[in-house]
Amino acid sequence: MNEAIVTIKATESELKCLIWSLNAIKTIRLPVEPEWKKPYKALLKDLEKIRDGIQEERRNIINDKKKEEKLRDINCETRDW
Length: 81
Prior knowledge:
Shape: elongated
Number of strands: 0
Strand content: under 5%
Number of helices: 2
Order of helices and strands: HH
Largest sheet: none
């Protein structure tokens, strides 16, 4: 069986809702074999990686801005007016 790969656009708040929902599914206790949870756990893991990537990128952007400001301040201090 062939699987298709699709691109899904979602906001960060939608991503948080999906992760919350999958965590809720993961904790359900039923008197049946938990094999049905495997795809949900895999999806949860993938979405958490995406969330972590977004957070890391946000941190990088903030750090880059701070570095730029610091360099600008240093350049202004070293100029002869």
